[in-house]
Write a structure and sequence with these properties.
Largest interface: A-B, 34 and 25 residues
Radius of gyration of chain A: 22 Å
Structural class of chain B: alpha+beta
Oligomer: heterodimer
Largest sheet of chain B: 2 strands, antiparallel
Order of helices and strands of chain B: EHEEHEEHEEHEHH
Shape of chain A: globular
Number of strands of chain A: 17
Strand content of chain B: 15-25%
Shape of chain B: globular
Helix content of chain B: 25-40%
Chain lengths: ~625, ~160
């Protein structure tokens, strides 16, 4: 019932919008959002397609809980073939756009083809049309949102758009909604830009119905109570955001530093959650102003920051002096520890640039870090960088290269290709900290063994949000495992991957799983939808989604050989901290993982596995 | 005791759960656009502000209504709209200085906060102290206590 059962198909080449009924057989097998959009995608799109060609499709999807009173019901996803990776891409975002799209009556939008000129999609409930965006092209995400609100004369519309990075073909361009929430990874913004689609503006006033309202309110009430009582979701995340992790992970010896040449960063305490709440030396004010929530979210982990207006990065530029989306842990790590920069204000600015111009801060920071290492070893010189001294720890150079990358200028054009292409070009592919072409995030697999397997097997390339075993290995959720052993991690990774696929397909946020188990979440889905939903059917559904994504990647040309980590993590031992002397033991975990998945030793889902999952 | 829906703006995170609870209670649907309590977000100042009817003692909406469709619930003090009597003339929406009574084009009637009959659902779902339902004569007590605490500690004196 909380499916609207309606899909909007947008033919960008022909300039038309049409309505289709939702395929209910697929909906019951793949739920919504990540799973259901991926099902449509793999059925409709050739896996060999060039990601930036008109033949690639891009699907925007809500889940069956999106827009309901379920906690964290603001989630939505973008599915396409990733510009950065060439693998299946599914980038997930919060904010308010997804709930608005659902309230307008749509489960999903399928974009196909390419517009001859820049356009934006304008939706008001069941009315949808493509409109000229030539006056918006060249504008930042922030200016695009302001301009569209002016054009529509409606302050309540919600907007998802690309900035200059997506227009310029930056391969890790993001789609940003509500100014600072982003479908960040894998270059979904580059795919959107390649289609000459600048923005989607939506206003929805139709409301969302659930199947059994009484049961639904009971189930959401119970989940809200668990989230409020839990130390992570009720206290840690509201107070410090994801930045609560910076000091914890550094002490664990798993904070990838200076392009993963170290696992601990001496400046970590200057760039973490505690530092954001402390008075600045310069003006006595704290970087953090408040927390803020996405739609329907009782956790409220989002950071609202305000920079010192006298900081060199923003002096004389009032547009950066107000209150904006602040640093999350992954961004603070990538822009900071990975590059060796510990200037919190500068990192805050670089994160603003990511929101303003539409980029993934993880890949940006990691690629700048790789460029810094290339520079340090002399593989690139200031002749290549336009005079920039790209040394680790150089704050001014970091700020400048982020600005250039956001606008697609100077050496920023090279950074905009991501670290793998850049490192290959300059003769050192081994310095790219990537899996399947995507930069890994803020957990060093030498210090957290399970994350090595999680990165290596992630269907969208290295990622923390496909199987966050940090939960178990560091935080002890649902139970504590030793981060330094690879024993038992294959099963742990599989379990996290399958449950995550369910949550990512539901319309709610993975952060709820710090407190909620699948048994807690299931009654919400069961009351939300017609039919009987159990934790078992949902877990099967999650495994089915994982195998479907895997199959697409195999058909796209990936093999088991791509389930690999950079040599640095397998051969160069951690130099300090609890993991000193350790490398990641991927070689031991991977065969066990394939077996648990029911895949062949080459990493291919067996016929029995596909049959068991009713695929 | 007459209670008031009290809003402590500084705590609001802008999650819109109150709007969903309100629209579900009154319209049987999750639909923020049909909620009688609204959250306004001001990104430039980083503020989220809940706003709804304050149940004026001499309610201008009630006095302006030409068909006496708005009456006082003596138990809660809420000014309630009778759908049976309301003719949708919208005069009350002009009379209200705060804009908290609005026309619903689906029903052809006006809608406003009725305190859910004395147990407001928005308060129940609010994950922060931003919304509370307390003795109408004591809505300033929290602020008074905060100031009193600062005075007692001598913080004001030493700050000057």
């Amino acid at each position: 019932m909380a499916w609207t059962k309606k899909i909007l198909r947008v033919d960008l080449s022909g300039g038309t919008c049409s309505t289709e009924p939702l395929n209910m057989e697929w909906a019951t097998k793949y739920l919504g959002q990540r799973g259901l959009a991926t099902k449509y995608f793999v059925e409709e799109c050739d896996p060999k397609v060039d990601p930036l060609s008109p033949e690639n499709k891009m699907i925007i999807a809500t889940g069956p809980l999106t827009g309901t009173a379920a906690p964290t019901s603001g989630r939505w996803s973008v599915v396409c073939k990733g510009a950065l990776t060439g693998a299946i891409a599914c980038s997930n975002s919060g904010g308010f756009f997804g709930a608005e799209l659902k309230n307008a009556g749509w489960d999903m939008i399928i974009f196909e083809g390419k517009s001859a000129t820049p356009v934006y999609l304008d939706i008001e409930n069941d009315q949808a049309s493509l409109k000229d965006a030539s006056a918006l092209w060249g504008k930042s995400v922030w200016d695009t949102e302001d301009a569209l609100r002016d054009i529509r004369g409606d302050n309540d519309i919600r907007i998802a758009s690309i900035g200059q990075a997506g227009e310029a073909g930056n391969l890790f361009a993001a789609i940003v909604n509500d100014k600072d929430r982003a479908a960040g990874r894998s270059g979904v913004g580059a795919v959107m830009g390649s289609k000459n689609l600048k923005a989607i503006a939506v206003r929805g006033t139709l409301g969302v119905q659930v199947s059994d309202p009484m049961k639904f309110m009971q189930a959401t009430g119970a989940c809200n109570q668990i989230l409020a009582d839990n130390a992570v979701t009720g206290e840690g995340l509201p107070t410090y955001g994801t930045q609560v992790l910076m000091n914890v992970i550094n002490e664990t010896g798993a904070l990838p530093t200076r392009n993963s040449s170290d696992v601990q960063f001496e400046g970590a305490s200057k760039i973490g959650g505690e530092a954001m709440t402390a008075p600045r030396e310069s003006d006595g004010k704290a970087n953090l102003v408040s927390n803020s929530a996405c739609f329907g979210c009782p956790i409220s982990c989002q950071r609202v920051s305000q920079m010192d207006p006298e900081h060199f990065a923003v002096r004389g530029q009032p547009k950066y002096h107000g209150k904006e989306g602040g640093l999350e842990y992954e961004a603070a790590w990538a822009l900071g520890a990975a590059t060796g920069v510990s200037d919190l204000e500068a990192l805050t600015f670089c994160n603003y640039i990511c929101n303003e111009n539409g980029m993934d801060p993880i890949t940006l920071g990691s690629t700048v870090a790789a460029a810094m290492e290339l520079y340090q070893i002399g593989a690139i010189t200031s002749a290549d960088t336009g005079g920039l001294v790209l040394e680790f720890g150089n704050t001014e150079s970091l700020v400048e290269i982020c600005k250039q990358t956001g606008l697609g200028e100077g050496f920023g054009k090279e950074i905009g290709q991501g670290s793998l292409r850049m490192c290959k070009k300059y003769g050192h592919p081994e310095l790219s900290m990537t899996v399947k072409g995507q930069e890994f995030p803020a957990y060093d697999p030498r210090g957290i063994q399970g994350m090595g397997l999680s990165y290596a097997t992630s269907n969208r390339g290295a990622c923390h949000l496909r199987g966050y075993t940090v939960s178990s290995e560091i935080l002890g959720i649902p139970e504590k495992t030793d981060p330094l052993t690879s024993d038992g991690k294959a099963g742990l990774v599989k379990a996290f991957q399958d449950v995550t696929a369910v949550v990512d397909s539901s319309g709610t946020c993975i952060f709820t799983t710090f407190a909620l188990s699948l048994d807690d979440i299931t009654p919400m889905i069961d009351a939300d939808l017609e039919g009987d939903w159990t934790a078992e059917t949902l877990l099967d559904l999650g495994e089915r989604i994982w195998n479907m994504e895997r199959q697409f990647n195999l058909d796209a040309g990936f093999t088991g050989a791509d389930d690999a980590l950079p040599d640095r993590l397998l051969k160069e031992a951690a130099k300090t901290g609890p993991a000193e002397g350790k490398v990641n033991e991927l070689g031991k975990m991977l065969p066990e993982y394939y077996e648990l998945r029911g895949w062949t030793p080459e990493g291919v889902p067996s016929n029995e596995t596909l049959a068991r999952l009713n695929m | 005791m007459i209670k008031a829906l009290h809003m402590d703006v500084s705590h609001c995170t802008g999650c819109h759960q109150c709007e969903m609870a309100c629209s579900y209670h009154h319209e049987n649907v999750f639909n923020p656009s049909k909620s009688r309590i609204k959250i306004f977000s001001f990104p430039e100042t980083g503020r989220n502000v809940p706003y709804t009817c304050t149940q004026c003692a001499e309610a201008w909406c009630m006095q302006a209504c030409p068909v006496d469709a708005i009456s006082v619930n003596v138990k809660t003090g809420a000014k309630e709209v009778s759908d049976a009597l309301c003719v949708g003339c919208k005069v009350c929406t002009i009379a209200c200085p705060f804009g908290t009574i609005n026309y619903n084009h689906t029903t052809g009637k006006v809608a406003k906060c009725d305190l859910c009959g004395g147990d407001p659902d928005c308060v129940k779902v609010c994950p922060t102290p931003a919304l509370s339902y307390i003795d109408a004569e004591l809505t300033g007590m929290g602020k008074m206590r905060e100031w009193a605490e600062r005075t007692d500690s001598g913080a004001q004196a030493t700050a000057t």
